[in-house]
Amino acid sequence: MAAGAGRVVEVGHQTGRVRVWSRDGSMREITLAIQQQPMDASVRSAWMASYTERIEDRAQRQQAEALLGQMPFPETAPYVSDVRIGREGAIWLAAADLDPTRIETTWIRIDDEGRATDRVRVPVSLRPQVVDDARFTGIWTDSLGVQSV
Known about the structure:
With 149 residues, the chain is of the alpha+beta class. It has two domains: 2-37 and 80-148, no CATH class; 41-70, no CATH class. Helices cover 17% and strands 41% of the residues. A four-stranded antiparallel sheet has the order 1-2-3-4, with no helix packed on it. Strands 5-6-7-8 form a four-stranded antiparallel sheet, with no helix packed on it. A three-stranded antiparallel sheet has the order 9-10-11, with no helix packed on it. A hairpin with a 5-residue loop joins strand 2 (7-11) and strand 3 (17-22). The longest helix is centred in the middle third of the chain and has 13 residues, at 58-70. The protein starts with a strand and ends with a strand.
C-alpha cells in the first residue's frame, strides 16, 4: 500500500488488481496488463537455498530444506513486491523477482488501464522513498550495511 499525490493505492500481489482511492473517496480498480512469471523448479530451488544457506548446523539445515520442500509453492510469482506513488501521481510497481542473486529491481510505471508505460532499473540495495517522474531518491545500503541517501 502507498499514499501520495492525493491518492492511496493497494495492490493485490497475486491477483494483479490495483485499487486506487482519490481524495474525494472514489475508488477505481485497475487490472494489470503485466504478465506473471511462472515459478519453475530452478526459481523454487534458488529461493529455498537463499533461506537455508545461512543455517550453519547441518542437521538443522536439512530439516529446514525438508520442511520448505513440503511447503506449497505458487505456480506463478506475485505480480509486484512493492508500490510507490510519484509526486505527479503516477503509480510505480516493483516487479516481483524471487531470484536471490538478482542485483537490480525493475520498477514499472502503469497507466490508468494497467499497462506498463515506463520501466526503470535500480540496484536491489536502493529502497526508493521519493519518485519524481523517472528519478528515484531513496536509501542506499552498501555491502557493509552503511546507509546513505
